[in-house]
Design brief:
Structural class: alpha/beta
Keywords: ATP-binding, Nucleotide-binding, Transport
Shape: elongated
Order of helices and strands: EEEEHEEHEHHHEHEHEEHEHEEHEH
Family: Belongs to the ABC transporter superfamily.
Pfam families: ABC_tran
CATH topology of the largest domain: Rossmann fold
Largest sheet: 6 strands, mixed
Strand order of the largest sheet: 7-8-9-4-10-11
Protein name: ABC transporter ATP-binding protein
Bound molecules: adenosine-5'-triphosphate
GO molecular function: ATP binding; ATP hydrolysis activity
């Protein structure tokens, strides 16, 4: 399997002294939708800037499509579509004319086929009907889609998207996610950063998890959570009693939601059968009892010992 992004010991310390990325070893296999997950401030944008050759690493190396960055930027970047920190658009131009501008800025783009390329890109992101509208009249979601269209004006082997759904409403988020899946189905490798765990679980085949500039884990999404115990869940007509007993048994994070009581994963030495027996002994009527499948969030908490929403 070839890797389209590879970093070794990649490190960035900003001038003020902030260590934003700390000895990162990342390997993104070709053909994946690769989620780059981490709370705000964990170093995702800094990493992406180094990958694209926009800033120099303090130490370590980054290769993109097999070539060293930033040295190979001129050769490699034409094959990489990027959307970082919202697209730069001319508000007074229509969406279509914004794309014409982008296309004209590409010296390798044939002007004779420009109109057709722009039309195809607009169509790809579902903006054909809104193509003549001024960009300043676009919603945030439409602006993101126009940015994606710009990244798709020529065939790309890799798309790098920094928080593509940030600030979008649920409908806008769904549209971008659907688009990402379609692009991946066409064979483009997509590397997308996000601070949303469920987004990564929904669209990504693989993920790397960052916290405070360091890589916590990476691999297929299905495997990341596999080594982690899930939450304990009890369905009962006596939820208040069940919650009390679970707390007395030393379980943490006890949450009651109607007839379901859940708790943080029990410690490895606690046999779920004993917990169930203790509930029944205390007179709690148990309808269902089990350990749920671990989510990526459970894995993150287990790996870092922290909640996911920590700021770096
Ligand atoms: N230009 C800069 N100069 C100094 N420090 C910076 C600079 N850019 C980012 N940082 C710091 O580096 C750390 C990592 O920031 P970065 O933007 O890479 O994280 P992130 O994971 O992309 O977060 P977010 O999702 O909030 O963008 C943060 O502590 C941030 O304050």
């Amino acid at each position: 399997m070839t890797t389209v992004i590879e970093t070794r010991g990649l490190t960035k310390r900003y001038r003020g002294g902030q260590l934003a990325v700390d000895r990162l070893d990342l390997a993104v296999p070709a053909g994946t939708v690769f989620g780059f997950l981490g709370p705000n401030g964990s170093g995702k944008t800094t990493t992406i800037r180094m990958l694209l050759g926009l800033i120099e690493p303090t130490a370590g190396s980054a290769t993109l499509l097999g070539q060293r960055m930033p040295r190979a930027a001129r050769a490699v970047l034409p094959e990489v579509g990027a959307l970082i920190e919202g697209p730069a658009l001319y508000g007074y131009l229509s969406g279509r004319d914004n794309l014409v501008r982008y296309d004209s800025a590409d010296p390798t783009a044939d002007p004779r086929t420009r109109r057709a390329r722009v039309a195809t890109a607009l169509d790809r992101v579902g903006l054909t009907a809104a193509g003549s509208k001024k960009a300043k009249a676009y919603s945030l979601g439409m602006k993101q889609r126009l940015g994606l269209a710009a990244a798709l004006l020529r065939p790309r082997r890799l798309l790098v998207l920094d928080e593509p759904t940030n600030g979008l409403d649920p409908q806008g988020m769904r549209e971008i996610r659907t688009l990402v899946r379609e692009l991946a189905a066409d064979g483009t490798t997509v590397f997308l950063s996000s601070h949303l765990l469920d987004e990564i679980e929904q669209v990504c085949t693989h993920a790397a998890v960052m916290a405070q500039g360091r890589l916590i884990t990476q691999g297929p999404v299905a495997e990341l959570a596999a080594g982690t115990r899930g939450r304990l869940a009890v369905v009962t007509p006596d939820p208040a009693d069940a919650a009390r007993v679970l707390k007395e048994l030393g379980l943490t994070g006890v949450v009651v939601a109607e007839d379901k009581v859940s708790a943080d994963p029990p410690p490895p030495d606690a046999d779920p059968a004993d917990l169930n027996a203790a509930l029944v002994r205390a007179g709690v009527r148990v309808r269902a009892f089990g350990v749920e499948r671990a989510s990526l969030e459970d894995a993150f908490v287990a790996l870092t010992g922290e909640g996911f929403d920590v700021a770096g």
